[in-house]
Amino acid sequence: MREVAQAAGVSVSTVANVLSRPSIVAPQTRHRVEQAMAAVGYVPHGPARQLRGVPSPIVGSITLDLANPFYAELNRGIEDALSEAGCMVLACSTDLQPAKEKQLLGLLQEQAVRGIIISPIDPDPTLLLQVSQRGTPVILIDHPRRQLDLCAVAVDDVAGGELAAEHLVSLGHRRIAFLAGAIDPGPVARRREGVRLALTAAGLDPARALVDVRMSDHHRSSVSAAARAVAQILATRPAPTAIICLNDTAALGVLEGLDAAGVRVPDEISVVGYDDLHFAARLSPALTTVHQPKHQLGRAAAELLLDEANPDHTHRETHFRPALKVRASTAPPPRRGR
């Protein structure tokens, strides 16, 4: 810093102000100091700046699985908002393991990150509340707030499940399979709840109209696991005439499994996905799915975290509604005896 000050012809305190409080330095002076930093090759030392009270520019993001395109797009929204504020995101996966989630929370606190955005797998919020109380802001994402003393960004998953089921019931389907993972994170459980509510509202008994099917694996190989689950669905009696998948990645696997079994979509069975990922409209047939505003979710979470530095900040929830995208993978069920 002394070299920078000498090169710029200013005091060391002026250099420090450019680094930590640039708004109080005259633009011409700030520009001169920045030029001097480039000339001498000065790079600010993050931990040292944090010891002087300068907030870390790093925000931790903990999601279920970065291999899932949904979380990739969600993290892109986080990154875009943080980049505009001069911050960066450190993204991690829990792989749906509560023990790994706990480990990541500890590691991020050790790095004194500016805050943590998390899609939690552990239903017990105690640890998250403790992290927040210790001074590291925590933002829930893809998860309702439910009166917790934290900020949250969420999509109404129950409504999303209802949209999928209502669409199929309106087409005439009366026996529907719901394909979930080996482990049910909160969003998937809420979607199943929405499906059951829609069936009940239509005068159907979920115990008879709904077939619960689980994949043998949930993350990384969900496409192949979903394809393997097709045999179980087709062997069910009475046979379902439609399948609602926990997400579009699983729906891709279901379409592959049905094609391998010689079952035509939607002539013999309808398929609905969830998320509306970039490939959903490009599949053959194009996938009917429930749209989530993935990039907006991430951006909203990052904006809430940045607002935590505001003295007037109050914890709140940013809420989004899903929307049904009807495409070619759904149609009325086949007539009996066809």
Describe, in plain words, how this protein is organized in 3D.
The protein has 13 helices and 12 strands. Helices cover about 45% and strands about 15% of the residues. Strands 2-1-3-4-5-11 form a 6-stranded parallel beta sheet, sandwiched between helices. It has about 350 residues and is of the alpha/beta class. It is elongated, with a radius of gyration of 25 Å. The mean pLDDT is about 90. The protein starts with a helix and ends in a 13-residue tail after the last strand. Helix 1 packs across helix 3.
Order of helices and strands: HHHHEHEHEHEEHEHHEHEHEEHEE
Main β-sheet, spatial strand arrangement:
2-1-3-4-5-11
Mean pLDDT: 92
Task: State the helicity in percent bands.
Answer: 40-55%
Cα separation of the termini: 81 Å
Strand count, sense and barrel status of the largest sheet are: 6 strands, parallel
Residue fraction in strands: 15-25%
- Summing up helix and strand content along with how strands pair, one would put the structural category as alpha/beta
What is the helix tally? 13
Low-confidence stretches: none
The gross shape turns out to be: elongated
